[in-house]
Design brief:
This protein is an all-alpha fold. Helix content is about 80%, strand content about 0%. The protein has four helices and no strands. Helix 1 packs antiparallel against helix 3.
């Protein structure tokens, strides 16, 4: 029993691998890098907890009312939330920036892979015609 890929011409096998099979693998790897980056920076979690306390640092207001303690806890808790929001926004922006870099690098790699046969032919013709000049 002959396998399907063994009955085809080697050129057709190469073209199928280069332009169909390998780009699928590149796209899958690219998707995995994008998912990993989102997961690594925890962008969705940071968005959900944007105004939470920084590192869960907060003061309790106490069981009985004390005006000094109340304002102390209020200011500390507000500062903790503001610091948490600023740092979370910074990490979200950094993660999204790296996501954009991954997108551009993926586009360059995929385009480079698809145009690689033309690049190789161009370089070979350049070498051949360059050597004939001398």
């Amino acid at each position: 029993m002959k396998l399907r890929y063994m009955t085809r011409n080697i050129l057709i096998q190469y073209l199928q691998w280069h332009f169909l099979d390998a780009p699928k693998s590149i796209l899958m790897a690219w998707r995995n890098y994008l998912k990993f980056n989102l997961n690594y920076w925890s962008i969705l979690v940071l968005l959900k907890t944007l105004f939470s306390h920084w590192r869960r640092y907060y003061y309790s207001y106490g069981k009985r009312f004390d005006l000094g303690r109340y304002f102390e806890a209020l200011t500390f808790n507000l500062m903790s939330r503001i610091i948490g929001a600023i740092l979370r926004i910074f990490f979200i922006a950094l993660g999204l920036l790296i996501e954009v870099v991954i997108i551009f690098v993926g586009i360059l790699l995929l385009a480079g892979w698809l145009f690689l046969p033309l690049i190789i032919l161009f370089l070979l013709f350049g070498i051949i015609f360059g050597l004939k000049i001398f």
